[in-house]
């Protein structure tokens, strides 16, 4: 049984909805967490070994758990937050738990690429720590940060498709339900093609934005 175009459009919309909201909430967690991982490390703006070790440990724990396992492991948390463990809304919860620490690590790496001379110059001018972060550190790393968020978004697209294995909705669910379980190879190739186009579009857009920022 072949799916019709309305089912594909609905699945695409569900994927976009999952990825969009997951990215938003993940960034709200990952951005400040990534900044803290940088400024609390030894020799940085707000050195705090205990806090750094705790944050670093938490990020490492979540980063070491494969998404498909995390998806099942936090089912009680998902049910508590959204009232169910199935569907697009429920999938957003594990996606945020998965992508938040991932974004934090990407942000950390981007900020660490900034030349220490920039920070030293800002301190010499008498800038406060929060001014150094938002007026010097982040602007200097902005091009790299855009690429980091692009990578995270592409990762979310892949994870959202994986969530289809447990009824998460979206293109992944459509591919598994029809392409795998009902041996509908046409649907499988269509969803695969859409996902490839999405990833290519996201990566190209991110690259162009990063390049433009770097040149400005």
Automatic annotation (TrEMBL):
A single cellular component GO annotation: plasma membrane
Membrane topology of the entry: Multi-pass membrane protein
Domain of life: Bacteria
InterPro entries recorded: AA_ABC_Transporter_Permease (IPR051322), MetI-like (IPR000515), MetI-like_sf (IPR035906)
A Pfam family hit: BPD_transp_1
Sequence ranges assigned to domain ABC transmembrane type-1 in this UniProt record: 12-204
GO term, biological process aspect, one: D-methionine transmembrane transport
UniProt subcellular location: Cell membrane
Primary location class: membrane
Keywords associated with the record: Cell membrane, Membrane, Transmembrane, Transmembrane helix, Transport
Ranges that cross the membrane: 16-39, 51-74, 80-100, 145-167, 187-209
Family the entry assigns: Belongs to the binding-protein-dependent transport system permease family. CysTW subfamily.
Protein name: Methionine ABC transporter permease
Organism: Jeotgalibacillus campisalis
